[in-house]
Amino acid sequence: MAFVSVLFPLAVDQTFTYYIEGFDGNDIGKRVLAPFGKNNRQKIGIAIGTASEIDNYKEAAILDKSPVLNKTLIDLLEFLHSYYGSGIGMAVKGMLPKRLFEIKEQICIEEHDFCYHKQSENLLSTEEQYYIINSIKDDIAKRFSSNLIMGVTGSGKTEIYLQLIEHAVEAGYGAIVLVPEITLTPQLEERFVSRFGDIISVFHSRLTPLQKFNRWLNVRTGRAPIVLGARSAIFVPAKTGIIVVDEEQDSSYKQSDMMPHYNGRDIAILRAKMEKIPVVLGSATPSVSTYYNAKTGKFRFFKIEKRVKETPLPKIYLADLNNCRTGIISEKLLAALEQKSQSLILVNRRGFAKNAVCLDCDSLIECPNCSVTLCYHKKDGQLKCHWCGYKQKIDTGCRKCGSSNLKFIGTGTEKVEAYIKEVLPNKVIERFDSDNTKKKGSYQKILNRLRDGEIDIIIGTQMLAKGHDYPGIMLSAILSYESLLAGADYLSSENAIQLALQVSGRAGRMSQGKSIIQTYNIHNPDFIDIIRHDYVSFCEKELVIRKKHLYPPFSHLIRMISVNPKQIEGKRDMQYIASWLSDRNIEFLGPSECLISKIRNKFRFHLIIKTNNVKSSVCFLRNLVENKKFDSRIIIDVDAIDFF
């Protein structure tokens, strides 16, 4: 008899056994229509393997002629479960389009041969580009290799990706290209479409369920074999010859806030290994761990130290904010902004002011649901929480004493925009942050205006540092370097120096530009490496520190978090876990309140485990959580990079 393990897209960490007449190995990965639960409602699941015979079984039926999950994706499901500790039901939910679990009729999945007509000519390759392309192209669709391209901003990494993918397409294969946030890199999409035409499928979070399903189907049937998208695109069923991860260091690749937890970059490397194809990681400032893997020979290491047109990298200057009268724009930066060329300013906070203070009782105005202060948004006349979405009007005033006598301190994008408009009234100034790009297509309109020279100064958050290439920008600036160090964890220096070099690299693509970093501490030793554009020097010093303290890449970090509406219970549960770990001589840090101790009226405590055997650690942690039945929701975050 054919008993089958069926997986449903539910927050249930198990498969269910059904009898399916005539089931064989070719049916693995296909959708199944099965009676589920006490009421036997017809529900769609995925057949992921055979099962042992059981009594009192229910019968199910195969829906489609073709599978929606291939062997690689089923193996990745198991990896999400065993390595990241993700519930397998939520893992399959995150892997497939929602509509696949809604359509209870057969879906026609007919294989097609894609038609490739070259849309545009390749750009002339530099000697460095030519060497890298020739070193990797013979691996395409043949053998696994992991390759780091560490190229300065403007060195032509995208052209390398395009030419390697072209080799894959000419051999009859597709490709997956991951980018941190596809909605913020329209230029990249334009370049791919202009090179490959309609065989591109673009995936991002702003697609409707129907759009996502249709694009998934185009990839699955082979009509559009080249996938360009954010982290979840790594699970799309493309017939890949190569995988590319652009800006591999970006924290957006790590999904920590919802199940399944995973790092898209690391899954890309694993998938390439499973499919015996090359993976290319690209960045001007790779993560320290990736640099270490390349340095020690685990990855092939390619460096590009010159820009395509040999334009010098921008000169980086420091501006001391201790001598700044306004506390916003130094005289050095103001003088540079007065020049005719376009300028870009990074402000690491949206809104008008970070904090509102009651002048009558000296209280900070805090979110009632989260342990954070409300941010003042002058345009809306509101105080907002950027964590739970709570908002209140200014005239609501202080909840402690009822006073409306408030003072606003700190600096956000709105405040900088207003100030520069006041001191430079003849400049066309635009703000580029998540508040100003909510409407569909709004970010594209702003970037088009920037490209066409209609904007003199663009002010924005970290969104501005990701992959944009606008030749008119000759000046880039960071308003306060200290604001980049707010994480207060072992990654804060790495993240800050990466962002500083990425922002500086937005300037001077056609001729040498200038970058100004405002700071309250011009003696920070990291500035030596930043001014020299010497990221390797920073990595080498950082590796010495991490080895001493056994931080990644010399260990893996597993963060355990308790989330509970009752503070005492949440603390007690984390203390129990700490005691349990101590009894087994397992090294950990904590427990303590999280940096943000309450979000959406739920209290948060955490501890951090250092380990060199992730799967074993995750296994016993999962057993602990499942057997103890904690009052709190316990989150296991493997290879954690967020510590708020």
| Number of strand segments | 29
The CATH homologous superfamily name of the largest domain equals P-loop containing nucleotide triphosphate hydrolases
Distance between the termini: 52 Å
Shape: globular
Q: Give the CATH level 1 class of the largest domain.
A: Alpha Beta
How large is the share of residues in beta strands? 15-25%
In CATH terms, what is the fold-level topology of the largest domain?
Answer: Rossmann fold
CATH architecture of the largest domain: 3-Layer(aba) Sandwich
Side by side, the strands of the main sheet go 8-9-7-10-13-6-14
Structural class: alpha/beta
Largest sheet: 7 strands, parallel
Give average pLDDT, whole number.
Answer: 93
Please give a structural write-up.
The protein is of the alpha/beta class and 644 residues long. It folds into five domains: 3-101, GIY-YIG endonuclease (3-Layer(aba) Sandwich); 127-304, P-loop containing nucleotide triphosphate hydrolases (Rossmann fold, 3-Layer(aba) Sandwich); 315-350 and 412-546, 3-Layer(aba) Sandwich (Rossmann fold), CATH 3.40.50.300; 355-409, no CATH class; 556-638, ACT domain (Alpha-Beta Plaits). 28% of the residues lie in helices and 24% in strands. It has a seven-stranded parallel β-sheet with strand order 8-9-7-10-13-6-14, with helices on both faces. It has a six-stranded parallel β-sheet with strand order 15-25-24-16-23-22, sandwiched between helices. Strands 2-1-4-3-5 form a five-stranded antiparallel β-sheet. It is globular, with a radius of gyration of 26 Å. The two termini are 52 Å apart.
